[in-house]
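Entry:
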Amino acid sequence: MDKTFAGGKLRHLRESRSMSQADMARLLDISPSYLNQIEHNSRPLTVPVLLRITEAFGVDTEFFANTDTARLVADVKEALLDEAVGIEATTSELNELASNLPGIASALVKLHRTYRNAVETTAALVTENGMGQHGSAAAPLPHEEVRDFFYERENYVGELDERAERMASDMGLRRGETVHRTLLDRLTDHYGVQVTSDGIDESAGQQHRYEPDAKVLRLAPSLRIGQRAFRMASQIALLEYDDLITELADSWAFSGPAARSLARVGLANYFAGALILPYGPFLSTAEKYRYDIERLCDEFGVGFETVCHRLSTLQRPKARGVPFSFVRVDRAGNMSKRQSAAGFHFSRVGGACPLWNIYEAFTSPGKIITQVATLPDGKSYFWIARTISRNVGGYASPGKTFSVGLGCELRHARRLVYSAGLDLDDRTAATPIGMGCKVCERPACPQRAFPHIGKQLTVDENTSTFVPYPAVPKPED
């Protein structure tokens, strides 16, 4: 059993109660010197002391778990690698900061993002010859702010998830087509909302429109039954829990009304997924089928992307599923969705890695592609990816195609049906990937599109190399 070193968390718990070390030591029946050693990670937490802490302070034992700080470490490293900062901290230094002072590390990351936004906005204004126009493309986009909002919550919103599960139970929501009928009855009987397919202009791209004054919800005829159910469930969220959704949206410092409204939509959609796929039944079914996504689609009557997104939210304390990261990209590499319940880091600099299987999926439409991928820090992940397509209208009508990826740490891979027959212990078979060329430390990658930030380039007019942007080698000691 691994030893639990949690000095930073214990110190934070003590200081949040305005207690001295002597006061806490007295409460826990240990010596102040022993407590001091625990807080400085010189001694691990023992089980008896841990039990006394949980009893005295009412915190769960998971509060002191050795949580994965990889994502925070990567965020801090990305900030420090900025050419304007110019600091190259060691991995051990970053781990120590993220583990013992996570609040300071998070503040550093937020300050850097604010700084970058200010620099980019200033540069855009200068480019506009001092005209002072607002709405520059350099400013943070609303959907990016909302992605950060869910990212910081690790893609789990317990306040909505638990209420959705209770509502599903109270309504007697059953899997399959009866879900659509039950939700329709709920809107009609409980809220007095009429649901119709009339009055929707699909040629303009409309999928649904709610008219609050008339209490009419208009759904596009082309929506599949699962999509219609999702739209109805989202509307129920806004009708039943408008105050809670507003409170959750107001808890984040969004830049303006557009981002705040988009966050409300995202929260309503989160509730919809949790209502149609209630936590307990969905988790037990996922475990039963070993996270076979297509069987879950058939079982619950929803699409591939909906199931993948729901799987990435199963992080309720004491009832956790596999901690997945979820991503959706298009052919051009644009990442339109990214959520993570694990330590996987999505870089904000320089795009994603072309060696990642989420891009390979476009070469085999509709087929699930698996990959064991290793990051530069040595951590390995198991990824599955598949394309999804959606068309509205007839022949030659524009449609959309995405690749959806779902990944977890390699240690969880054996719980998935997709790992059957694979040698997960063969690390030589893993694909080395990075989180964007500008921050990737792999010097020998032939797919590198940009040089590494903060690294001096080797430029020799008389030599060419297969690897683009070769870095100057470090001098030997």
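The chain has 17 helices and eleven strands.
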